[in-house]
Records
---
Amino acid sequence: MAESAAEARIDQSLVARALLGDDRRAFEQLVRRHQGMVRAQLCRLLHGDEAAADDLAQETFLLAWRKLDQFRSDARFSTWLYRIAYSCFLQMCRTKSWAARNAQDDEMEHLPVPVHAMDLQLDLARAMRHLSVAEQAVLLHCIQLGLSHEEAAYVLAMPLGTVKTHAMRGKAKLKTWLSAWHEAAGEEQTS
Amino acid sequence: MNPIHDNDIDTLLRQSFNGPTTDVGFSDRVMQHVLPRRRRSLWPLAAGILVGTVLCSLSLYNSPLWHAAWHGLRVGEWSSSTIIMLSTMTGMSLLALVWTLAEADDH
């Protein structure tokens, strides 16, 4: 907690330096500090498409530079970046090319799931893709990126109650699917 | 086989996340595209306010309602034209306030 507060203070001072003197080196430090998690967030949202994630991450940081004076320290800088990145992702989803590519992926997703998948990690990755986009986004931000429900609501521009509902439903679905596969795997092992 | 619990799902999800992506030149590529920020100049706003005020004054100059309202205001008499003028000004100010707040919220 103290570490996170210290990190937030460092970010705030870097933002102040970048704003006051138009200091590109301060902004470069911010990019270096946060690029890893923003790219990981986008890579997850784009189902592992690293090239598209990098393009969107670059767009995110350029937007952040242009809108830096709009950053309010009531949110963490990382959370603010996640919000911009998620907006860029949504914008990209609205374009025809990505929607068409994603539709092909969706067809692949609706194939029946083999019940004898043994590795729970692989099962989890497969199960995650069967969740709705909103449930995937909420679980990614709340559990994998470690944001609070309030922060996830800010990033995803969703009401807090909706975030909690998506988190609960997503976990319940994963539990049901993984339990079924877990049992099938157990039966195979005993037979 | 033990049943899967909520905590197991959390743990599995965390384990399946690979963590931050390594930089490998990404930050340098971004910084090549970062240009010095343009300072927002204030003159368009000032000019807009000035032109708006002048045009508003010109259009109201010949209006009998405006003259009656102004006269009523000067002598401290709450005539209907004075009330209409003040209500209109209050309404326009509130509208501008709501618009400003909405714009600020959007950003």
---
Amino acid sequence: MANTIVLPKLGQTMEEGTIVEWLKKEGDPVSRGDILFQVESDKAVLEVESRYKGVLLKILVGPNVKVPVLTPVGIIGEPGESVSSPEATSAAEPSEAGSGQPTPQVEVAGEPGALTAETPGARVLASPRARRLAREERIDITLLAGSGPGGRIIERDVESYLASRPTATPLAEHIARDLGVPLPKPEPGTERVRADQVLAEQPLVAAESPAALNAVSMAGIAAEPTPLTGLRGIIAERMAASAHTTAAVTLQSRADATQLVAARARLKEAYAQELGFSIGYNDLLAVIVARCLTELPYMNVQLGPEGIRQMPGVSLGLAVDSPRGLLVPVVHQAETLGVREFAVRFRGLVARAREGKALPDDLSGGTFTVTNLGMYGIDSFTPIINLPETGILGVGRIKPEPAVVDGQVAVRQTMWLSLTFDHRLVDGAPAARFLQAVVRYIEEPYLLLA
Amino acid sequence: MHIADVEKGNLGATGIVGGNIPVATGAALSMRLQGLDRCVVCFFGDGATNTGNFHESLNLAAAWKLPVIYVVENNLYGMSVPFDKVSPLPDVAARAAAYDMPGIVLDGMDPIAVYEGVSAALANARQGQGPTLIECKTYRWYGHSRSDPRVYRSKDEEQAWRERDPIPNFADRLVAQGIATRAEVDAVEAAADKAVERATEFALNSPMPNPAEVEKDVYVLAPATPAEIEAEQRLRERVCSEANLPTRFYWEAIRDALREELLRDPSVFVMGEDVGIYGGAYGATRGLAQEFGDRRVFDTPISEALIGGMAVGAAMTSMRPVAELMYVDFTPLAMDQIANQGAKNRYMFGGKTRVPMVIRTEGGAGRSIAAHHSQSLEALWTHFPGIYVVMPSTPYDAKGLLKAAIRDDNPIMFIEHKMLYGTKGPVPDDDYVIPLGVADIKREGSDVTLISYSRMVLRCLEAAETLAAEGISVEVIDLRSLKPLDMETIVASVRKTGRVVGVTEAYKTGSFISELFVRINESAFDWLDAPMVRVAAADVPVPMAETLEDAAIPSTAAIIAGVQRVLHQA
């Protein structure tokens, strides 16, 4: 039986998208997990995998056409199978209704067939009554299956969902309501949906990171209220989610960065020609943080539905500005990379993102984030944890300050570091030890060689 | 134009001049019925004398010797068309001969001649000798309107009539005969100028109407009180549950309502085609002429426009007419009088009048009497602001609603159904009224709301009964009155069931169900679980052949199909 492929909704606020390229042609065999096409949303280009096995029978939406999410874009089925999904046929053929019986005593309000004649999948077919109930009960109607004519979602579909709806903890209910998202099904073996599960089910797309908060310029805010949609809406959701659930504590420490400055100057000089760019402080800091996470892996954990999960490698997110908006490329297995390798890998990600060709992994799956506001003259701040990560390091500016060295006052390059961590998962002392370790590597970067 | 002073006896100048002649005739009828020594003077131009209203009115006024003087100001042109181009007779007055009434031509430029002619006519009218048609030959200085270039007449002609201007000529005559001095004449003129000046000033200094009051004075608002609604609800429950109530035919219920109101209020009278000794085409006035005499219950000529206009004129002069138009198919003949005059007068006269009249008529198919005697034209009437439309389905409703309609101060189109006159149902002997604008849930249900009125309610109930056997619970709402409309009951039901089928015997296109569906859309969209379904008559003139008539009009099976469709439609 043919399966219809729809344009996925890749974020809470994504309403439409454009297929950049089909990586399969009509007639190509498709396996589960094969990349079908790349789709560009308002934030990034992501690859969409097939959930079905078979043959790509038909491409319904070609490249460079902007369509609403959930629009059928292709059909996968058995080789030789005729394309006869209801969506496909109703789009191709005019509605047969309305042909005008001589005595049409019984008529639907509106022309008969009007509903099915609409662009298939352009919107969810649901009765106003079903929509109202779903709205009141905070159910995402797009998740429901319609049992009405033509697959229309009617009241009884919402009611049956409600009857089987999982119960949730008060906090989970609260968060779901605040985020305006539906409650997920409880994990197998559990009776109630927990708050962390609500959060874990929210897709994390690159610009949804807390650092993106900084990307929205106050200059753009006019007297008129701006709807909380798009990037702003995502940020609001993510911030609220983090603030609602984490037990965030921020530790601050001043590091003597004199040696780091010297090291960076030397690295820059040594590799500028070879690399074609200058190694920056962020590259050094990334390597330091990755090293610390390897040494103190309790900071490299995530809270999942089943409990605290030790993440196997360091996937380090590092915020950068770009013409497309703020991006947080994630360098996976950062703990295995030296400064040069990290710098090259990272700049590659940034370039791909700037061209709109980022792959999903480029912008997601981080286990720890570094955010640097030093270039704006910020000394210290309290970053917000990028869920489901456990910690985030805020980096302040480097500036010469009087400091006591060996009993003498001397001018040193100093730098404030702010570590925000989730006290639910990590206690204060271990977190402090982590920050201490970071400070130590900043003060004595040659220790990285050990 | 559009000016009136009803309190002082000026029933208004209308934009559709001929349309007011029946209204004046009705006012004269009203004077007669009230036994008042008053006479109606009705002014119009030569143009209006070529409308049917003129002839219908003169005919009846002469036949009944009504106290009315019809004054034609013949200024030679109906707007731009010369009278001699559109009339074989040079004098309008000559037409009076056809109605065996005096027709007098006067010099309209001579006040003394007009005074004497009208005085004689007035004396005649007061002595019960009937109406007079007075034609005043005169002229119109200016155009028909400000935009009239007067290309249809010559400057010489205008000048010749100018020289006959009665104002300076009459003044000269008074001075020449020593009746008045020049100074006195000048003083009169100055006083007239002053009066106009003061009136202008008053108008200019008066505030413009408040836009927030745009809907004020369309109706005499007397909404039913919760207590009245509840009392009727209790009575309805009694009617449904009490076994020993007397039963009445629908026609009897109508007749009883008329009878009780005739007894209760001397200003009520019944008129129409064959309502007298014949007892009405469908028997609804049987025995009333015998009981109340021909001053309370009387036949009219087959002049629908006149019947409608007379009802308006009588209603504006303290009477409560119940006028019967035999078929709703005929009501468009009286549309100008009922919809343009009766329904609008209150609003156009700034709320300074009331038009408490009931037009009783009947509609609907079922007798194979074809498209001139079988239609359902209620939507024509619901369209106009200022008039209510009531359509009962049971004897109980018919009686209570008709009594309420007669007591109401608005014009009401009361549409019965020819196939219901012979139906029977319980009717309490109480002196009860059913508040207008309160729908009746004829059957409670939870799956689908069937909304209808008049005869189709019975078919809806049959359909509901059949569907109940299939486990489908149908709620049947009888609107009872389309205007005012009981949205509260409708919305409550839609909120309950989420599915609506509207049933009407009217042509599908533009039927009242279409309006109803828009209202539901406006008030209860979020409660709909399926597109609303209408079951209406085919868009063909109601056919005569039984098989075709049955095919054109919604059957119980069609209603059942409609319900199935709203439940399972693809």
